[in-house]
Amino acid sequence: MGTQRSVLQKGQMSPPSLGKFRSRFSSQTLDESVDSPNQKPNPGCPTSRRLCETWEFRRTGAKWSSHASERTKFLGIRAAIVLLSLLAAPPAIPQSITPAPQDQSSQPHVTKSETGKQDEAARAAARARSHHFDRVLIIVLENVDYERAIQDPSLAALASQGASFTNFHALFHPSYPNYLAMIAGTDFGLHRRGSYLGDRQVNFPNDADHKTIADRLIASGLDFKQYAEELPAGTCPWNISGLHITDKRGNYVRRHVPFLSFREIQEKWCDHVIPVDSAKANNFFAEDAKKGLVAYSFYTPNMNHDGHDTNAQVAGAWVKKFLDETFPEKLRQGTLVVVTFDESGGNEDNLIYTVLLGDMVKPASQQDPATLGKHYTHYSMLRTIEDNFGLEPLTANDREAPPITGIWK
C-alpha cells in the first residue's frame, strides 16, 4: 500500500478534486470519451458510476490512479485541440447591420407655429390679390412717341376703353433690347452696343444665365406662344434676319420675335413659335383665338402693321381692326390685352403709349388719373404677369420693378 499511496500522491488530482473538475462537463461527454464501447462492466461495481469509481479506488489505489491519469491526459489533449482550432480559425468579419425602419407614424410631426401659419396665409392672400387674369396677350407696336400715339383716333379709342397709362416708359434704344427685356427681364447689355449694333441678332446660349418667362411658365404647368406675322417658310430657328414680302402686307424681321433669340427655345420649344399669314382671315392665330389662347401669348405684327415702316395711324387702324374682328371681345373673356410700343420715336424720356384692356380692368371712367400716372416700364409689365401667375421673377430688374396696381376690378 505504500507504493500505491506514493503513486496516488504524485497524481494530478485526488478523487474529490477530479469530481469537481468532472462536474464542469456533461456526463455524456465524459462517458463517450473515457469508456470504450467494448468495455465490459465490472460485475462487482455498483450501478452509480461515481460509486463505482470510489469502489474501484478503495479496492486498488493503483488502478484509480491509472484511471485518473488517463482522464487527465485526455482532457488536456482535448483542451489543446480546442485551443489550436481557435487559433487557426480566420478572424470573424464584422457585418454591418441595417437598422430596421422606424415606424413613421410614431415619429413626431412638425407643425407650423401660429406665426408661420399667419405668414403663409398672408402670402396666399397676396397671391390671390395679384391674380387678375387667366391669359395675357401682348401686342407690340413700333417707334412712336406717346404724344403722337395718344392723338391717333384709333389708339385714343382703345385708351377710352381701359387703363391708359400716362407715365409708361420704354427702357432702351434701339428696339431689340426692349423686346428682350419684355420676356427675359434684361437685355443682357446689348443696348450698350449703340443704335446700329444694338439691333444685331444674337443667339443666346441655353444655360442658367439666359432664361425667359417661357421657362417659368413651363415649369409651373402653363404654356406660351409667340405669334409672328409673315414668319418665313422653313424650319426653326428661321435664322434669316429679315424677309421682304412682295405683296406689300408688311415685311418680317427676326429681331421683333424675341423668343427666337434663345437657343433653349430653338432646341426645345420651337413649335411654340407660330407663323401667322395676315392675308388669311382664318390663320393660325384666329384658329387659336376661337379655341382659347394659352396663358401667355406674344404677338408680333409685320413691319407695316406695327408702324415701323408706316406710321402711327396705320398701326392704330390695324390694331383696332385686329381687336374688333380677329380677336373680338366675346373671345377675350379672362384675357388681358396689352397694347404697347417697344420704344418711343425719339422723345426725351422714352415715354410710350400703353393700354390694358379686358373684363378684369376697370373702365376708363372709373380709373384714377393718379394711378395711371405712376411710373412704370416694361419691367413693371413683366413683374405684373409674373405675380399674376405666381412665377418667380427672372432678374433683379423685374423683381424690383413695381407691379401695376389700382386698375383692376
List descriptors.
409 residues, alpha/beta, Alkaline Phosphatase, subunit A, 2 domains, seven-stranded mixed β-sheet, 16 helices, 11 strands, 39% helix, disordered N terminus
Tell me the layout of helices and strands:
Elements: H1 2-10, H2 15-22, H3 27-34, H4 49-59, H5 61-88, H6 114-130, E1 135-141, H7 146-149, H8 153-159, E2 163-164, E3 168-169, H9 175-184, H10 213-219, E4 224-229, E5 242-243, E6 252-253, H11 263-268, E7 273-276, H12 284-291, E8 296-300, H13 312-326, E9 335-341, E10 354-357, H14 369-372, E11 376-377, H15 378-389, H16 396-400
Helix pairs in contact: 1-5, 4-5, 8-13, 9-15
Span from first to last CA?
129 Å
- Helical content stands at 25-40%
Radius of gyration: 48 Å
Named CATH architecture of the largest domain: 3-Layer(aba) Sandwich
**Number of structural domains:** 2
**Could you say which structural class the secondary elements and strand pairing correspond to?**
alpha/beta
Q: How is the CATH topology of the largest domain named?
A: Alkaline Phosphatase, subunit A
Element order, helices and strands? HHHHHHEHHEEHHEEEHEHEHEEHEHH
The number of strands is 11
Please report the number of helical segments.
16
